[in-house]
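Task card 7
Instruction: Convert sequence to structure tokens.
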Amino acid sequence: MDSIKKLTNQNNVILDPEKFKAPEYVIRMGFYRENDTVEEEVNFYFSHWYMSMVTLDILTNAVIEVSSALINYYDEHTNKKNAIGVRKSKYNQFVRTWQDFNGYLINIKQTIYDYYDLYARTCNVIDPNIKETPYYAFKSDTAPAELHAAVKELLLHGNMGRLAGFSLLRSMTEITVVGRLLDLQNSPKYKNKTIEFNNDYPIVSKLHMQCD
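Output:
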């Protein structure tokens, strides 16, 4: 954080890291809808770097908590003093917790790479002379479309560990999916028609938030 502050001062770039502590500011700076133009690249990449830093902290704490539960379920399963039904139940809980544990570890590894890449990209847009090489530089460039694709891939894995720390990203993806489903411009049959929402449905509030 201090190195980025120093870099922005040296290059006369306006960036206030304190503002990113507010979720609504992170959403505004980091979550562009598909086909939108990224106008504030420094804020865009910094917001995603900031989220990766927070996510890494969340995942690390989650691994510590799950580790304790994993040991407890294993001890209860192998304890011959327990009834057979209890031991079977603890085994099932052990298996599910083991899957979550591995999901957290995979996420931590991925987030470490993301953390470095987004830090490098933030520094590069602040000062193009730095030319720091991101880890995924030879795979694809990170832009809003790629971030959407990454979130969709993440959600497909399906266990609790895979979803930890990404509630804002899930909301972004949900809004995108709903927006596509309700976009009648690509429908030959309903192209010239409109959709009227019943305000009792929760999704309406999400769409209104996105429009605002």
